[in-house]
Amino acid sequence: MRYLMGIDLGSTSIKAVIYDYSGNPVSYGTQPTPLSHLDPAQPTWSVWEPEKIWACVKLSVRQALSRVSSPDDVGAVAVTGFGMDGLPLDKNGAPLYPMISWHCPRTIPQSRSFSEKIGKKRIFELTGKQVMDIDSIYRMLWLKENHPELLEAADKWLLIEDFINFKLCGVQASDYSMATCTSVFDQRSRSWSKELIEAAGIPLSLFPPVYQSGTPLGTILPSAAEETGLAKTTQVVLGGHDFICGAYAVGAIDSNVLLDLTGTWEMLLLATDRVNLSDDLYNSGYYIEGHVATNRYMYVGSFISGDMTEWLKHHLSACNPGALEGSNPWPAIITAVEEAPLGSRGCFFLPHFSGAGAPFRDPNSMGAFLGLQNIVSCGDMMRAVFEGLDYQFRMMLESFQSYRLGTPERIIATGGAAKNAFWMQNKADITGLSLTVPDVYEATPLGAAMLAGLGCGVYKNDAEAVQAVQKPSVTYDPDESKYRQYSQYYNEVFCTLQKELCGINHKLSSLFR
Fold first, then answer.
1. Residue environment code for 283-319, b if the CB has 16+ CB neighbours within 10 A, otherwise e
2. What pLDDT is attached to residue 305?
3. N or C: which end of the chain has fewer CB within 10 A?
4. Do 203 and 321 lie in a common domain?
5. Does residue 137 or residue 308 have the better pLDDT?
6. CA 143/CA 43 separation, integer angstroms
7. 492: which DSSP letter?
């Protein structure tokens, strides 16, 4: 045994990546994830057909194994992926209905009616989850209302990762991070919430046993070995929710490390060893999931980020002739942003194009440029977008401390925006904290592979697994003089914007949204 495998069930692609024990990629295979629209009368309804997903997993695994000397070299495998989508299985383990995708809007009525019946706050008090239309219990309620005979015939409901584990080793189980995505998992007791499940009128027996990520489930079934090429002796180990596996891979397992996961949404993740489900936390919009690290949880906050820089690229860059040359306008945009002065000549940007997320949730808040004068250039406005996003980031960072969730001492950033050196440096300057961007290949499947190693004894504990895969990184240290200047602008101006603009933004929202 020399290698570990992580299988990542992504929304756009399914990957099987083989790593050595130091987290170096050895081989990989990938297939596009097939999203299906099976009802012509409902073109927006989206599903994952279970046998198609399994077929892509098999192909990806075979591709990855084709580049290693022997399947026996892969000692263990763990599965990760998106969280909420699942399906009912009969007593023989056969699927009864496709997995309703998180893309699909059909469960909005069920989420509204159930959360009104129980109370959104009560759901949060038990599960740590804000109400999300895509969570599993609302899929189950939709099936109960529309195809009750299928739910009655079901023996178990498995989430997508759990279904692939079942296909690999024949065991039906889930982990704490995935179980959180059902919105009926009690965080304090780490067990299924009888109160919520009974209120939904769903049999408790449909829900599988739940264990800590890194728990061994069994070895590869003979049929799965034949179909995937994996050795029958390969261990199947519980993985977890994709972004939390990614956090595990870069060492975000303690409350002194804040993970900044950048993309269309910017997600701030903070590990903790305790559950805080206060009223303030509920009102803020934060939520909590089980961590894949042992005896840990993960606080999660998010706001739209990359979507606004894309808006900048498509609209504000038109003011900058240099940005229109060539197919990639970003080099010219960043040059213009770097040439603009700190503070953008008094131009401020409120990054609420899709409402305000944590820590002051308000769906009716809207974006704004303020402080426009005839001296403000397009480059200043573009810089103000980045500064506004980073002020928002600082506000969320400070809220973790004010809600006593933890005291972040350093930031780790991953995702697409982490490649933008200006953005990362500006984030360090505004927060006053060092920011590290690790050189990690595919953090999500790496996190799964680390859990596979934990389950088969390659690593003794989480700390040893994290230490084993550490990689070189780029660190951005704050400029103290810039931090002091930014702190004045942040405290005296940005922190007041949402409150000061609340009335007019709510009026605009009622008129135009």
1. ebbbbbbbbbbeebbbbbbbbbbbbbbeebbeebbee
2. 84
3. C
4. no
5. 137
6. 18
7. I
Copy the structure tokens of residue 65.
């194994």
Is 104 within 8 Å of 56 (Cβ atoms)? no
**228 and 57 Cβ atoms separated by less than 8 Å:** yes
Q: How many domains does the chain have?
A: 2
Domain end point (choices 213, 241, 269): 241
Q: Determine, yes or no, domain membership for 473.
A: no
pLDDT band at 319 (very low <50, low <70, confident <90, very high): low
Q: What is the CATH number of the domain that holds 115?
A: 3.30.420.40
338 within some domain: yes
Mean pLDDT of the residues in the chain: 93
Q: What is the pLDDT of residues 102-136, one digit of tens each?
A: 989 999 999 999 999 999 999 999 999 999 999 99
Name the residue among 299, 212, 221 with its Cα closest to residue 253.
299
Q: What is the pLDDT of residues 33-66, one digit of tens each?
A: 999 999 999 999 999 999 999 999 999 999 999 9
For residue range 478-488, list pLDDT tens digits in order: 999 999 999 99
Residue-wise DSSP of 354-405 = TBB-TTS-BTT---EEE---TT--HHHHHHHHHHHHHHHHHHHHHHHHHTTS
In a domain, 376, yes or no: yes
How confident is residue 284, by pLDDT bands cut at 50, 70 and 90? confident
Contact 354, 391 (CB under 8 A): no
Nearest alpha carbon to residue 14 among 22, 23, 4, 5? 5
Residue 315 is assigned to a structural domain of this protein: yes
If asked whether residues 44 and 126 sit together in one domain, one would say yes
What is the CA 211 to chain-centroid distance, rounded?
20
Do 204 and 128 share a structural domain? yes
Task: Find the radius of gyration of the CA atoms of the chain.
Answer: 23
Run of H or E including 71 = none
Could you tell me if 236 and 372 lie in one domain? no
* Alpha helix positions (H), 147-221: 148-153, 160-169, 176-180, 194-200
CB 405 within 8 A of CB 276: yes
Range of the domain at 356: 306-399+480-512
Give the number of other Cβ atoms within 10 Å of residue 357's Cβ: 26
> Average pLDDT of 82-107?
95
Pairing of strands 25-32, 13-20: antiparallel
